[in-house]
Amino acid sequence: MDALIRVGAIDDDRMLLEGLRSWTEGVADLRLAATAPTVSDFLGARPGALDLVLLDLTLADGSDPARNVRRLVDAGHRALVVSVLHDAGQIAATFAAGAHGYVTKDHDLDALSAAIRQVAGGATAFSPELALACLRDPRPRPPRLSRREEAVLVAYASGMTLASAARHAGVRPGTAKTYLDRVKAKYQRGGRAASTKLDLAERAREDGLLPVPARRAGR
């Protein structure tokens, strides 16, 4: 018997989650071990050791898809995105954030199980949609930032003063200003506006460093 693959799933469609649970119970090597409607709920429940997590791209809480992927990856999970969307920019953004695969919901269960086994085995489920999205990625390329530059950018762009951002990043205010000037220069060399705090906040959201503003109820 093949080794059991423990799967987590994050989706706000309860019927879909129940369907996944029933389906995996009939597959010898798959078990749905943890579910939640949001990434925050999932991580807060401390689901334990899993081989991968299925993540719906668009959740009802309005959370940013790329940031959701990043949070799961940072917590040590392998993330396989499962979505109804074929949007090239969204697909490429989640892949850039660390997703280990992308499967649209119009695939059958055999395709999903194959993708699950690929990701659980350490590979990337590189579907035709993902390959095409990466080729057609409309997003501007993010600049290469050092860890300290990114920390200062995120703190400052999220609303902190420069002095507070410096304390948050563990550097002196003068050093934080130097980092911020470097960040601005890197964005501007790429043709992306970065002269104001609002500009920097928008760049950080575009690159998945800050969450996008929550949407109103509804999809």
Automatic annotation (TrEMBL):
Chain segments annotated as transmembrane: none
Domain Response regulatory: 6-120
Entries under PROSITE patterns matching the protein: RESPONSE_REGULATORY
Gene3D superfamilies given in the database record: 3.40.50.2300
Pfam family, one: Response_reg
Domain of life: Bacteria
Residue numbers bearing the 4-aspartylphosphate modification: 56
Keywords in alphabetical order: DNA-binding, Phosphoprotein, Transcription, Transcription regulation
SMART domains linked to this entry: REC
InterPro entries xrefs: CheY-like_superfamily, Sig_transdc_resp-reg_C-effctor, Sig_transdc_resp-reg_receiver, WalR-like
Protein name listed in UniProt: Response regulator
